[in-house]
């Protein structure tokens, strides 16, 4: 396994800044959230005012869960100012995309979603990461 140092991580984040999935990479890097947590994050779980978010952690081999399994639990993550700013920008972008798409928008309350509001497939996030790194 190859682990990036701080310089490499910041270089990746800077180079992916304008990508639609940037918020996913930023959240993973700055919070330690795993892919299923990032992709399952909903706006109702983000508390910008108090600089924190709540996420469901699962240990199932199939990824995201509704949090009702014995192997899952909820954790609270404190957010830094930069991450709060990025989430605010993301929220504005989601609202713009929602307005632009109109009735075709699928509002799943997802932080990380497509421009039509649909879920991002985990494999597509992986593909984007490999493409950008």
UniProtKB/TrEMBL annotation:
Pfam family, one: Phage_integrase
Residue ranges occupied by any Tyr recombinase domain in the UniProt entry: 1-133
Keywords: DNA recombination
UniProt KW Membrane keyword: no
PROSITE patterns on file: TYR_RECOMBINASE (PS51898)
Name this polypeptide is given: Tyrosine-type recombinase/integrase
Keyword Secreted: no
InterPro entries hit by this protein: DNA_brk_join_enz, Integrase-like_cat_sf, Integrase_catalytic
Lineage summary: Bacteria, Bacillati, Bacillota, Bacilli, Bacillales
């Amino acid at each position: 396994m190859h682990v990036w140092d701080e310089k490499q991580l910041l270089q990746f984040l800077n180079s992916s800044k304008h990508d639609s999935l940037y918020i996913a990479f930023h959240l993973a890097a700055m919070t330690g959230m795993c892919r299923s947590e990032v992709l399952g994050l909903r706006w109702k779980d983000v508390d910008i005012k108090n600089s924190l978010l709540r996420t469901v952690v699962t240990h199932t081999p199939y990824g995201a869960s509704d949090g009702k399994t014995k192997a899952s639990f909820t954790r609270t993550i404190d957010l830094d100012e930069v991450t709060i700013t990025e989430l605010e920008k993301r929220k504005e972008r989601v609202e713009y995309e929602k307005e632009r798409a109109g009735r075709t928008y699928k509002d799943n309350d997802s932080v990380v979603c497509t421009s039509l509001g649909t879920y991002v497939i985990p494999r597509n996030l992986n593909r984007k990461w490999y493409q950008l790194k």
